[in-house]
Specification:
Two copies of one chain form a homodimer.
Chain A (H helix, E strand, L loop, with lengths): L11 H11 L17 H16 L3 E4 L5 E5 L9 E5 L13 H17 L7 E5 L13 H6 L5 H6 L8 H8 L14 E7 L4 H5 L3 E7 L1 E10 L3 E2 L11 H18 L5 E9 L6 E2 L2 E10 L2 H22 L2 E10 L2 E2 L2 H14 L3 E6 L4 H5 L5 E6 L15 H19 L4
């Protein structure tokens, strides 16, 4: 990289302006954003994004699943473009940063290079992936998954929302069903900037998270069958209490996750008592449970530790505990050279940083299965996301965009 | 009691027939009864009951709250009548025995005495209390509570159901608003036969429960305020998990109840996670909790043991646990001479028996505050009640009615 580039920084005010200008598309009274994928508000932000990319000299391609690829030409157009971006759709009561920061920071990288008159060797490709959130259509991250070959385009086009509208119909309705086959644009690598969605960077006072792994996940559906009986008339030793059973399960999950730490986590997120009443001992409970770890062997070990713990609780309490593993996703191992590129960019810019595991799924996790991929995290307030009060500082967003800029420059190369 | 009475038994087939004949009033497809107080089905069973009592030679009085008192004359009408009975209303998906056994067994006692030509010294008063269940109008056991002076008649008449219909309007609608002031019929004592609604008699193979106490109750409303965050991105040590907190609370309640056993019980019956999601750590949970004990001092001790346990859990997990004691009902101590009368009757009839605490509330618990009162329990299948599958054997129901017969004979006296 040319020496004079080492201090190049993005335009913080312009990035911040883009984030807050586009937050009007689906703005909620509490300061968040409701911009469900392929809805009217998504069309508005897509139109804004296409216009901005074209104004920045890019050629915007749209694939059959509506994913937007804005190509900034490089010196050597035989080289595969370096992909950078994220997504502009949100949760039903989402925030202003999840996905949006990474997409608009990618746009800001192009604008910064334009202002500085810098041509990269390889072309760049700013990407807005369709339906990362998965709150209107399942699965989440469907467009990047299709790009990675996990689903056919036809399969995804046929998926329907709660009103029975298919992805294909929704794309047509907003005019974003593109003509290019999914995966036609062959990227050389992909870099995604994102808010952490967890509390670690903030708790440790670090500015940049250099993401080395994405957690693998096991999802379970559970059911406890005890015996509902009168809370006053049933002595303690004769009870088969489903809620007391669940309580032991929850604490066992917590203990097992801690024993496989520091990166393993285990959570019981949902639990519903059947026909609850103040004076009836809970008889039946349905619950959901998950384990996550950045290591596949640890995922196995978590499941192995869980089974006998559950069996012991069920036998001792004379209840049935049914546990159904409904999904397993293997951990993501990000490319070591890509991790090093992010680390170097952060170090060169003088930011504090730490290696970090992504607890959430991202489009980058799909891309990592088919090309060298990196992720950059910046702190978010109190670790909150998927919430209207999701927040991040301008300084941290700017730092993340600068790391994205220099990571991409090192990957794309600049004629010296 | 005259010697020739000692082997007197009720007519088992007639009792069983009455139970199953009246079960048609509100019969449910699953074999239960839906007979909400003061509704159309309740009118039908009341009409049947009045006709049956009058056919048995009784004079039926109805008070201002619709409670039915069928007087069988005694030799000495200056003596206060001996009350016996229960209630004919049911839960929305109730069974054929709860309340009904006690009321129809009281009728059967009169029929048996008629057949045998036996005149008691004191008159008898067969009672059907209005709204024991409390599922249409609150509070439960309202008519006997008003009889005992806990509420004014006007207060109860003004209580409304979910449709806004008042007790007074409902009484008028079925023609059961009586002219007699509540409490005008001064009983000398009261005896109530009831299914146990718990598993103890069945588990121990006993036929008769001689009830010595009714449990006192403390009800709490609880709320846990933790912090909802991403299940994948929040490390175990940084969590403030409301469900893991609740789990410790549930197990603490269980442990505390056991430590104050054998008659103390503690239950968390309801728990609702706010905005639950499979991959979100539960942030807020509302729950309800209760303790019961037949001893007032033990109730105090249960509450005293709970407070520091809750405080320790909240402090350690950095969450708030709010606990609001919303109701306290003191234990019922049944009259020792009445308990002895039931025990003697059971022994004389050769039934196996044990002393037992009533875990549920009953009209008899209200009566016990104003007159000598006794309760007789018989087993029910698996301890189940307030359920369409509630079940009891003909043999046990017959045994309970025989104990009722001989208890009442000993209380009323028979000219020798």
């Amino acid at each position: 990289m040319a020496k004079h580039l080492s201090n190049l920084q993005i335009d913080s005010a312009r990035l911040w302006g883009a984030i807050h200008d586009t937050a009007q598309f689906g703005a909620t009274p509490k300061g968040g954003v409701r911009r469900l994928t392929l809805g009217a508000e998504d069309k508005r932000v897509r139109d804004w994004f296409r216009a901005a990319c074209e104004a920045a000299g890019c050629e915007v391609h749209i694939d059959a699943l509506g994913t937007m690829y804005a190509i900034r030409r490089g010196r050597d157009m035989t080289k595969a473009p370096i992909g950078l971006g994220s997504h502009l759709d949100t949760q039903p009561t989402g925030g202003k940063y999840d996905g949006i920061l990474g997409t608009l920071a990618a746009l800001e990288v192009v604008r910064t290079l334009n202002d500085a008159g810098i041509e990269t060797d390889a072309p760049l490709c700013v990407i807005n992936w369709t339906n990362e959130e998965g709150s209107r259509f399942a699965p989440a991250m469907m467009a990047s998954a299709a790009y990675a070959g996990d689903y056919t385009t036809a399969d995804i086009l046929g998926r329907t929302d709660a009103e029975g509208i298919s992805v294909g119909q929704a794309l047509d309705a907003i005019g974003y069903r593109g003509t290019e086959p999914v995966g036609q644009i062959k990227l050389g690598s992909f870099v995604e900037l994102h808010i952490e969605q967890g509390p670690i960077l903030e708790a440790e006072g670090k500015t940049i998270g250099v993401v080395d792994h994405g957690q693998g996940i096991i999802w379970y559906d559970g059911k406890i069958t005890g015996f509902a009986s009168h809370a006053g008339a049933t002595p303690m030793p004769l009870r088969r209490d489903a809620l007391a059973t669940l309580s032991e399960v929850v604490l066992a999950v917590e203990t097992i996750a801690r024993e496989h730490g520091p990166n393993a986590v285990g959570t019981v997120g949902e639990a519903v008592i059947d026909n609850p009443s103040r004076n009836v001992i809970p008889g039946d409970i349905a619950f959901t449970m998950e384990f996550r770890s950045p290591d596949g062997g640890t995922l196995d070990a978590l499941d192995r530790a869980l089974r006998p713990a559950i069996a012991e609780i069920a036998a001792r309490r004379k209840v049935a505990i049914d546990l159904d593993m409904i999904w397993r996703k293997e951990p993501t191992h990000f490319d070591p050279r890509m991790i090093a590129a992010v680390q170097s960019a952060s170090d060169a810019l003088g930011y504090s940083s730490r290696r970090i595991t992504s607890g959430a799924g991202h489009d980058a996790c799909n891309m990592a299965t088919v090309m060298p991929t990196a992720m950059i995290f910046v702190p978010c307030k109190d670790g909150i996301s998927h919430n209207e009060i999701e927040d991040a500082t301008q300084a941290d967003c700017t730092a993340g965009a600068n790391v994205l800029l220099h990571t991409v420059l090192s990957l794309a190369g600049v004629a010296g």
